Each structure stands twice: as C-alpha cells, then as structure tokens.
Amino acid sequence: xxxxxxxxxxxxxxxxxxxGLFARYxxxxxxVNDVSIKLHRGESYGLVGESxxxxxxxxxxxxxxxxxxxxxxxxxxxxSGSLKLSELNRKELFNYRTKVKYVFQDPARSLNPRMTxxxxxxxxxxxxxxxxxxxxxxxxxxxxxxxxGLNPDDLDRRPSDFxxxxxxxxxxxxxxxxxxxxxxxxxxxxxxxVSIQSQILNLLLELKEKFKLTMLFIAHDLTVTSYLCxxxxxxxxGRIMEEAAAQDLVQHRFHPYTRxxxxxxxxxxxxxxxxxxxEPFDSTRALKGCPFYHRCGSRxxxxxNRPPMEDLKEDHLTACYHPCQ
Length: 325
Ligand SMILES: Nc1ncnc2c1ncn2[C@@H]1O[C@H](COP(=O)(O)OP(=O)(O)O)[C@@H](O)[C@H]1O
Ligand SMILES: [Mg+2]
Description:
The protein is about 30% helix and about 25% strand. Helix 4 (about 115-125) packs parallel to helix 6. The two termini are about 25 Å apart. It has one domain (about 5-110, about 180-320): 3-Layer(aba) Sandwich (Rossmann fold). By secondary structure, it is α/β, with parallel strands linked by helices. The longest helix is centred in the middle third of the chain and has 18 residues, at about 195-210. The protein is globular and about 65 Å long. The model is unreliable at about 265-275 (pLDDT under 50). Strands 6-7-8-3-9-10-12-11 form an eight-stranded mixed sheet, sandwiched between helices. A four-stranded antiparallel sheet has the order 2-1-4-5, with helices on one face. The structure holds adenosine-5'-diphosphate and magnesium ion. Adenosine-5'-diphosphate (ADP) binds near residues 49, 51, 55, 56 and 283.
C-alpha cells in the first residue's frame, strides 16, 4: 500500500454529561474509545456504524475541532513533513486545516444564508497565505463551480436559491477550492433523496480521481460505503470492530456485529440505522470488555476482556474472540 497520510493512534474522547436535576455530576459520554486508523495517500476509507457510535467525534478530532483525551494524531503532508497535531500552534493548525477539509452532513445549516456563493467559497481561502487576489479567486471559484457541476453564473446567488443536492455541491466546492490533500465527508449524502445521493457519490468519485484526494468517508450505510471506498472500518460504541478492504468485506464478515449490520440492510433498519429489536447502547458507561457483549449471540466469559484487533486473513482485522466463519 502507499505511504500513510494520516495516523489516528489510540484516540480517546469523552464528553461530560450535563449535570441535570437527576444526573449525577462527573459522568461522561464515552464517544471514542481507543481508535487507531491509518489513512494511506490516495485511498478512500469508509467509516460505518450506527448513529451515536462516535463517527463524527472521530472526524472532529481529526481536524482538531475537539482535543482528544488520549492518543495522538500524526499527519504526514507533502510539504509539511510529519506533524504531531497536539503540538501545533494556532497558525500551524490553520495551515493544517487548509490541507484537511471537512464537509458536513447538513448543507442547509453549514452554509451561511446571508452570504453569496462566491463569498462562501472564498471566506476561508481569503485568510490563507495562498489567497490569489480577488480577480484570480473569482476565476478559480467559477472553475470550481464547473468542476462540481454547478453554473459559474450562479456565484452571486445565495444558498436559498439552490436545492439540497446543489448546496452539498457548494459545500464540496468550498472544501476543494483550497486544494486539500484529505477530504473528510461526514454523512454528506444522508440528508439527500436517494436519486440525488448517487449523483453526489459519483461526483465524489470523479473528484477523488481528478484531485488525487485521500478521503475519509463517513456513512451509516454499508452499501453506499462499499461502492465508494477502498477500505472500510466498522465502528461500534467508539471502537473499530472490523477493518478490511471493501471488496473483501462483501465476501467475508468475521465480526458478529458486521454480520448484523450487513444482514440488517434494509429491512430491519430505519434510516438512522438503529437496529430494531435491540436496546440502543449506553455510552455513559466506560467500556471494559467487548463493546458488543450485550447484543452478541456468541459471547462467553472471555468477552469480558477487550478482544484485540487480529489479522484473521491478510489485511483483514477483527476484534473478536468468536469470529464467524
Ligand atoms: N459535543 C458533544 N457534547 C456531548 N456529547 C457529545 C458531543 N458530540 C457527540 N456527543 C455524544 O457522543 C456520542 C457519539 O456521537 P457522534 O460522534 O456524533 O456519533 P455519530 O456521528 O456516529 O452519530 C453520542 O452519544 C453523542 O451524544
Ligand atoms: Mg455523525
């Protein structure tokens, strides 16, 4: 495989629970529990899992919107050398965020309704040391509109003039105008109609080739992710349960949770991917053994200990003492 671009090493993140009338003070939501992922240059990595399993938190750690409580993030950029994110000062972090861009799920809320599309596309760019001046930026913005399948004549319109799918194209254009190396797409198609979803997915595939992007693609839908991604990590309660090449995972699913995910599609799952017939997990308890213990049909005493990630097949990691065959 190619060189590593981003390394998430043993990341941990917990949020204090708001102390309400009945809540005890000092309790936490354990959102990310010791996650390690390596993103290779040029690959697209799909992160899948139920709502609330910690995908967005992990993405936000990757752009340092939150600081991790444990672990470290290393970035090996082309011109930046190797960076340890916890050691960056404000300016260095700003530069890092021009290389690693995050596209949100909800285009309606992430675009300022009072700004024109041109202003939206260039607001961040304007602050960067690579700002090319108004005239060139205007040309670049027009070119970027064409690239994402929008009309450059619409640069002076506002978000309300666009449909959901078009707004998501604007969000993608805003991320790409700064020529990032890594694009993080957090449920970018989840809020869109199915017919529009495939258009955006195909656009992402095109852009990935065109700009030689590395992608972290977050979704709760395994089918969508398998279509777009080279490798997939399956997440549950803030941990990676199984990780393999997308093609491989279609054929071999070793973790009982991954099985459940695949088999649940689509009949037993609603859009938000809460599996019916199961209690949702309680993230306010610190994880000790296997995160899937309470739902697993194959559990034994041993599963009270945390299963390590092991290679059951080449480049196919599974964290389970009783993998399916
Ligand atoms: N800023 C926050 N403050 C408190 N709790 C949070 C915050 N962000 C996420 N959480 C909690 O952390 C857990 C993981 O959330 P999230 O990362 O958004 O999951 P996902 O993106 O997989 O749906 C959830 O229980 C969520 O309620
Ligand atoms: Mg999310």
